[in-house]
TrEMBL record:
Recorded GO CC terms: cytoplasm
Protein known as: Thiamine-phosphate pyrophosphorylase
Highest taxon above the source species: Bacteria
Domain Thiamine phosphate synthase/TenI per the UniProt entry, residue ranges: 7-58, 88-168
Pathway as given in its UniProt record: Cofactor biosynthesis; thiamine diphosphate biosynthesis
Coiled coil region boundaries: none
Amino acid sequence: MVTPGGLVVLTDRRSAAGSLVEVVQQAVRGGAAWVILRERDLRYAERAALARELRSVVPPAHLIVSGPDPLGGSAVHLAGADSLPSGVALVGRSWHGTEDLSGVDYVTVSPVYPTSSKPGYGPALGVTGAADMRAPVPWLALGGVDTPERAAECGAGGASGIAVMGAVMRSPDPERTARELSEAFLTERVR
């Protein structure tokens, strides 16, 4: 089973510095290996159409849909309370140390650092705190990973990847931001 790793970009059309599809395309050119489509407030048809558009700019089978419906794909990322869907090849879950991980292939652990995307969400775990949770599956560091230094710390701390939203979505140059974060993470990643 291939699980997300490296730079994983989460979408946020409201904060994107341009067209969401263009921002994601630039991030992929910069090194984003995976993309998680959030946008759960969109109507089903709009969200499904957005998923199709994003699949045209994301590496094959590397678009993960937030929620239990993969919207024609094969990967989902679940909130703690979401039910496990059947027939989905890749399942991730937001994990805070208590959620059931049966049938889950990877988790996001958050917030690793204070985050401007969710002010007041925390307290921040830090990389050591996130690693000390001892996720039984590969884990992605989420929350406030907005500088190359923080990306490198996550790599050195044992994360399989970094999940980034605001730093890439709000960047005036998503390709450069993605490249800087991806390279910093991969350079320090514990193998």
